[in-house]
Amino acid sequence: MKFLVIGAIVIGAAVFSLLPILSAYFFQPTLKDSIRFNIYFLPLSFLGNIALAWGFIQGSKTFGNTVMLGGIQTGVNAILITVLSILVLRQNISVYSIIGILLIAIGAILLNK
Question: What confidence score (pLDDT) does residue 53 get?
Answer without folding.
Answer: 92
